[in-house]
Amino acid sequence: MALKKKTPSVQDAAGTSSDASFLLAQNRQQSRMETLSRIIRSRPPLDRHPPERIGNFLPEWFDRNVEKPGVLLTDIVELCKAELPRQLYDAVALAGIHRGSLTIYVQSAAAKAEIDSCLRSSLVSKIQTRTHGVVQKVRTVVNRSMASNDFSKSATKRNSAER
């Protein structure tokens, strides 16, 4: 005896089961799946930008934010090396350029006074010419943490010799 395959039935609002309502629900579900499948297939791919466009952004950013300021600072270092005495050049460190202001760290107040006099004489105008007007003003800041070991040892030797 062959068993009949029983299809599940869905109960309608009255609570009675009917094969017609089951087929209707199944057709609705299949229709929804087809619609969803069609929407997914018709969607554009998520990667809309070709790799060249994304790859070109990084060199532009690097050039603008790293390379150009680095070239400016290199030019300023070369200028300072040529214009400043060796001892004064060793007491100076360039901190950076921000909004047209070049910040220079100096070891001591005496070195700051010497640098300021050099800047007032002609160094600022030479820096402005070399950087094509990017640097408008120069700030000097005493930074005591720059003192090298040789400088602090020589100061200690002088102090002990005076006693």
SSE diagram, text form:
Layout lengths: L9 E2 L5 E2 H24 L8 H33 L2 H5 L1 E7 L2 E6 L2 H22 L6 E6 L6 H14 L1
Parallel strand pairs: 4-5
Antiparallel strand pairs: 1-2, 3-4
Helix pairs in contact: 2-4
> What percent of the residues sit in helical stretches (DSSP H or I)?
55-70%
Strand content: 5-15%
Q: What is the overall silhouette?
A: rod-shaped
Q: Could you tell me the radius of gyration in angstroms?
A: 39 Å
- The counted number of beta strands is 5
- How many helices does DSSP assign? 5
Biggest β-sheet description: 3 strands, mixed
Low-confidence stretches: 149-159
List the helices and strands in order: EEHHHEEHEH
* Overall average pLDDT: 77
The strand order across the widest sheet is 3-4-5
Write down the oligomeric state.
Answer: single chain
Structural class estimated from helices and strands: alpha+beta
Give the N-terminus to C-terminus distance in angstroms: 122 Å
3D architecture notes:
The radius of gyration is 39 Å and the shape is rod-shaped. The chain has a domain of 60 residues. α2 crosses α4. A three-stranded mixed beta sheet has the order 3-4-5. Strands 1-2 form a two-stranded antiparallel ribbon. With 163 residues, the chain is α+β, with helices and mostly antiparallel strands. Helices cover 60% and strands 14% of the residues. It contains five helices and five strands, in the order ββαααββαβα.
